[in-house]
Amino acid sequence: MKSLKTVFLPILLFTISFSILGQVNKKLDDPKSWEVHNREVSFNNGVIHLNSNPGDGILWLKGSDFQNGTIELNIKGKNKIGASFVGVAFNGKDNSIFDAVYFRPFNFQNPEKKEHMVQYIAMPHLDWKTLREGHPGKYETHIAPAPVPNDWFHVKLEINYPKVEVYVNRSPTPTFTIEEQINVSGHGKIGLWVGESSEGWFKNISIKQKKMENYTRILMDVAHNQVFWNDPKSMKLENEKIGRVYMMTEELFKTSRAINATVDYAKGEIDSNMLSDIDILYIHIPKKQYTKKEVKAIHRFIDDGGSLFIIMDSDYWSSLNDTNVNDIITPYGIQYGDAIPDKLPGGHTIKGEIHDKPLKISYHEARKVIGGTPFVYGDELGKAYPAGTFTNTKKGGKIVAMGEAMTSLYMTSWQGVDDYQCQEFMQDVFSWLKK
């Protein structure tokens, strides 16, 4: 696996309360419950006002981590052409990474712009312009009947990840439906959002959240100089790798949907707090040493029943001198060895505990994986050198260790072969790890 062809980006109240299953646990008419970005905010008789400023502004609800449920509120903007954008941010990670549904009041009574009344965006890369050009009419629409531009209007967001339904002025049917959020995480902070040079007014906010217990939580490590995987939303558009990362992320998006999972990114030192609500830790070709504290936290996670999906490859990408991954897996009877001495591309899995049928998978220049129960091999040398193995630990954890990375990069085409079953492989592995 000496070179990989770049794949370009394919598409690119007055009583305010926060409720979980109907039980109020936080009053939000207190300014201390909020943190503001790029705006001045005032609270007056139940109305929250964000002033106008160059750039976008967000008022974040502190400590919020919302995935599924209902967000209701009244919103008011202005009938000011090109300068009134008001809405709700969700899936917030920071001031630049979030999704939002917002409105353009100045288009409410404009018949020539009626299809641009309400908009969904997935920031920072998928703004309104990118989505309109790439998917005209899919992520914005009209409102019928249209609100009065300078008046209050009622908004209800029904979010059931990945679907979002938007109801305006208590309509019994959705005004706007986003079938799939463009987001592998599917949860995060909630905020009140205003766009470029806009001011906005908000009141009567009610948030009712459903529990997230039915979702499998995957944490992908991107803090150890990973060769390929990254959080694409944290990358700059001019980064030469962003097209490949988005391609892989789109495939991971399909995998996570299939197994009812969400994906978050570990961007700092891994510790037990970070792993406390995670089901699967995903480590892919790191090139940096893990600290003793990190190794200990990962061992505690596995010993408490957590699952690990760990992947290395040939020395071309990362050597065992670059990273101490064997410190992580050796206590569980598995370790990485040197290169497998085959040269021909192509690999396969075997029927067993993970796969109910053999799969044809992409493979080229892999690393030996010693121990556990082998289930992945190159085609040239057969079962002489396993390139993938798994184990159930004594304390209930699960580990899949791969010495080949092309399959987990969703490389379905290689040296003239274009029918590798990478998506099926990834779904099977994550499904086994989540059980």
What does this entry look like structurally?
A hairpin with a 2-residue loop joins strand 12 and strand 13. Helix 2 (242-258) crosses helix 5. The longest helix is centred in the middle third of the chain and has 17 residues, at 242-258. The chain contains five helices and 27 strands. By secondary structure, it is mainly beta. It has helices at residues 128-134, 242-258, 292-303, 325-329, 422-434, and strands at residues 17-20, 23-27, 34-37, 41-44, 47-50, 57-61, 68-76, 86-92, 98-103, 118-123, 140-141, 153-160, 163-168, 176-178, 189-194, 200-210, 216-221, 261-266, 280-284, 307-311, 334-339, 347-349, 360-361, 367-371, 373-378, 386-392, 398-402. Strands 1, 2, 4, 5, 7, 12, 13, 14 and 16 form a nine-stranded mixed β-sheet that branches. The two termini are 32 Å apart. The model is unreliable at 1-25 (pLDDT under 50). The chain has two domains: 17-210, Jelly Rolls (Sandwich); 216-434, Rossmann fold, CATH 3.40.50.
